[in-house]
Design goal:
It catalyses: Thiol-dependent hydrolysis of ester, thioester, amide, peptide and isopeptide bonds formed by the C-terminal Gly of ubiquitin (a 76-residue protein attached to proteins as an intracellular targeting signal). The longest helix has 16 residues, at about 485-500. The chain has about 800 residues and is an alpha+beta fold. About 35% of the residues are buried. The chain is built from 23 helices and 28 strands.
Length: about 800
């Protein structure tokens, strides 16, 4: 049959994507086959869904769509010669994106072999066949010319961002006061007006003062003179000299405590005689300085096991994940999750069933994409060693590229939808929430992590107690620096470091000495009592002092442990504790077992209305909100510090921003919240929550408790299962007790099976890798690189996964 005879019966179902339809031509909706795979990718010419060959017939039977555009792209490595251009230095903090870190970059060329395939006969029609009908040729050209759907979605999410991080326009820019003091800034020869530094200099845009910037944790940077000057004058904006070009420069707002955009920078600089059109970059931007710091930190080499000849691993369970632009946090967490049997059973072993039951839009179905990810990681289909002796140098794709998955789980989220680096622990909790939403009434693999936290508060004066319980999925442990067992060695190292820096020398990363802290000391500190000032005692009917202790009422099958390494310094700069933690392979947490109320203990009365009203200083609340903190948490901070000032409230925020209820609606103790009759839920948000399988009453309650914030409501509803069960019982008119949250419990003794490490100075920059124990051997997963680990850096990790023995 001719091409025309084959295609004419199907013309009514062949379309061109001219109506804004999404075209998925870079990745299969059900697996990670792509145009570079051995069998290529088949794009349905009706729905524009991309399919790997093993899924085409099933899709044809489901939809009766018969015509597919077959995309086949062969990648060949271009041999590098002595005349090849030198490797570019990184200019961005990202990993695996243009301008970012790309340690193993290779050059390739591609050969395209595309055609049309008609099912069920699998007849191949070359695109050069002159018998192809005109409308089919138009459709083929439109599909080939269309941007892939994930690129369009990413572009929409990243609109208006800079390197993945949006810089706000400073509220001080438009009406910035500039003093007429006659000061003119020369084009060079700048020096700090309070010290001798000639680099990292900032020009205050109000009065033209030139001062040095902040001192970084490693001793580099400046002497904080620009910061000190702001505290004296409150002049808000400064631009970093040496970064000014016709396109702008690095502008910092001390009042807003962030890098900002100044749309009037040219005018503000002209006030001091600076012509922005003639300026050239002579100093490092803040991004470049951060890169330099990250590269200097010895943990980069240690965690990635640089210098070791690591043996690559291939086959089922040894598949890497390509970095999609600072997605290493996601890659590490998902690699760890899919080593757990609960996740393997739910998504890998049940993949075929999930695929057959998926919605008409597999790219947007979470369970389908999880099954696809599980199959990609565990099947071994995308983890084969490179061919030996291939003259053509044809290179098979290495690992999988989970672009659809990343787009889906980040959709609508202010952080995970961007290319910014994220906190792996926050992403772990995020993915737990999403899995719970999509597992209602079905097997929920996250149950293996869930444990019951018991908190006991005891009024010191009356001796009476109050017990509360909540669910959690991650045990966050403090890192007590005072528990260091090598303080003398650290002191000697710090002295040597200062001496070398005075000589203009750098210390060898291999000689770095970090405070060494036993993990058991972290556990011990977690179990210690915490003093609560200004505790309102219902027994005394006045404020008192209380002690609070936290225990685990149940112990899960798998325990995720987080070391709280990220903190705020006394200078208010976020920083990471550079410590070495002695982590045992076996961990006994028997000392943390909660036993509930004990004989002889008397509970505090449940009286709610006796506490006197306290007015909250709204000015302090507003100041905290402007710093970027949730308004409800700011109210809590001001209330709990008795309106005693912004610094005291800020300290409270830093100590409590990790509390589970930090951002929940705050009601003054002793007052009553608005009744459910007066609360009006947002109708659109209500429908969104109900679409997850909840009743209208449950959705309304979640929105009421989160001030109509649909995202927080979705998180709230899954962490308050007990209350929802109570509501269901009341609606049914039942007299039986509400169903209690179920927890797995057992022996509190664990063995280490995986850990995730972070390299960099904060969670927003740097790189994550994970190590997983397989067949009694440690394996490193560094994005798409999977290898046998020679020196697993357990002491420098951030998250640890323990399995109950």
């Amino acid at each position: 049959m001719t091409a025309a005879e084959l295609l004419t019966p199907h013309l009514s179902k062949i379309k061109a994507p001219f109506g804004g339809e999404k075209v998925y031509k870079d990745e299969c909706a059900f697996c990670f086959d792509n145009p570079e795979s051995e069998t290529g990718l088949y794009v349905c010419m009706n729905t524009f869904i991309g399919l790997g060959k093993k899924h085409v017939e099933r899709y044809y039977r489901m939809t009766t769509n018969s015509v597919f555009l077959h995309l086949r792209r062969i990648r060949k490595e271009i041999p590098q010669t002595d005349e090849s251009p030198p490797e570019k230095k990184p200019t961005k903090l990202a990993i695996g994106v243009e301008g970012g870190f790309n340690p193993d970059e290779k050059k390739y060329e591609f050969e395209e072999q595309n055609s049309i395939v008609v099912l069920p006969s699998w007849t191949v029609i070359p695109l050069t066949d002159p018998g192809i009908p005109d409308m089919v040729q138009v459709a083929v050209a439109a599909i080939l010319g269309a941007e892939d759907a994930w690129k369009l979605e990413e572009a929409a999410a990243m609109a208006g961002t800079w390197d993945g991080e949006k810089r706000i326009v400073s509220k001080y820019a438009e009406n910035l006061a500039q003093l007429n003091n006659g000061k003119k800034i020369p084009p060079k020869g700048w020096k700090c007006e309070r010290c001798d530094l000639t680099s990292n200099l900032w020009l205050n845009l109000t009065d033209g003062t030139i001062l040095c910037g902040r001192r970084f944790f490693d001793g580099s940077g400046g002497n904080n003179h620009a910061v000190d000057y702001y505290e004296q004058t409150k002049y808000p904006l400064a631009v970093k000299l040496g970064t000014i070009t016709p396109d702008g420069g690095d502008v910092y707002s001390y009042a807003e405590d962030d890098m900002v955009e100044d749309p009037y920078l040219a005018k503000h600089l002209a006030h001091f005689g600076i012509n922005i059109t003639s300026m050239e970059k002579t100093d490092k931007t803040m991004v470049e300085m951060e890169i330099d710091i990250n590269q200097k930190i010895g943990e980069w080499d240690v965690i990635q096991e640089a210098g070791s000849k690591l043996t690559p691993m291939y086959g089922p369970g040894y598949t890497g994940m390509r970095n999609l632009g600072n997605s290493c946090y996601m890659n590490s967490v998902m690699q760890v999750l899919f080593t757990i049997p609960d996740f393997q059973r739910r998504y890998y072993e049940a993949a075929t069933t999930i695929f057959n039951n998926c919605t008409s839009n597999p790219t947007g179905d979470f369970n389908t994409q999880m099954a696809k990810l599980g199959h990609g990681l565990l099947s071994g289909d995308y983890s084969a060693p490179p061919p030996e002796g291939a003259e053509s140098k044809i290179m098979p794709p290495t690992g999988i590229r989970p672009q659809m998955f990343k787009t889906l789980i980040g959709k609508g989220h202010p952080e995970f939808s961007t290319k910014r680096q994220q906190d792996a622990q926050e992403f772990f909790l995020h993915i737990i929430n999403i899995i719970e939403r999509n597992s209602r009434g079905d097997h929920n693999p996250t149950e293996c992590f869930k444990f019951n936290v018991e908190e006991k508060v005891q009024c010191v004066q009356s001796g009476k107690v109050k017990y509360t319980n909540r669910s959690d999925y991650c045990l966050a442990l403090p890192v007590p620096l005072e528990a260091s067992v090598n303080k003398d060695d650290v002191t000697l190292y710090e002295a040597k470091k200062i001496d070398l820096e005075a000589q203009g020398k750098k210390i060898d990363p291999k000689e770095i000495v970090r405070p060494k802290i036993p993990l058991l000391k972290c556990v011990e500190t977690f179990g210690e009592s915490e003093t609560i000032d200004d505790f309102y005692s219902t027994a005394l009917k006045k404020k008192s002092i209380a002690s609070k202790t936290t225990r685990l009422a149940t112990f899960p099958d798998y325990l995720m442990v987080q070391l709280k390494k990220f903190t705020i310094g006394e200078d208010w700069i976020p920083r990471k504790l550079d410590v070495s933690v002695d982590v045992p392979d076996e961990l006994d947490l028997s000392a943390l077992r909660g036993m509930g109320i004990q004989p002889g203990e008397e509970e505090l009365p449940t009286e709610q209305q006796s506490q006197p009203q306290i007015q909250i200083d709204e000015t302090l609340v507003t100041q905290l909100v402007e710093m970027g903190f949730p308004i409800e948490g700011c109210k809590r901070a001001v209330y709990n510090t008795n309106n005693s000032g912004i610094e005291t409230a800020m300290n409270w925020v830093m100590e409590h921003m990790g509390d589970q209820d930090f951002a929940d609606p705050f009601v003054l103790p002793g007052s009553t919240a608005s009744s459910s009759e007066t609360f009006q839920p947002n109708e659109e948000s209500l429908m969104m929550i109900m679409s997850m399988g909840f009743t209208k009453e449950q959705a309304a309650k979640a929105l009421k408790n989160t001030n109509n914030n649909v995202e927080r409501a979705a998180d709230w509803i899954f962490s308050h299962a007990d209350e929802l069960d109570t509501m269901e019982t009341e609606e049914q008119g039942a007299t039986a007790a509400p169903t209690q949250t179920q927890y797995r419990d057992g022996n509190p003794k664990y063995k280490l099976v995986a850990f995730i490490s972070h390299m960099g100075t904060s969670t927003m920059v740097g790189h994550y890798v994970c190590h997983i124990k397989k067949d009694d051997k440690w394996v490193i997963f560094n994005d798409e690189h999977v290898a046998l680990s020679e020196h697993p850096p357990k002491d420098l990790a951030y998250l640890y996964l323990y399995q109950r023995v």
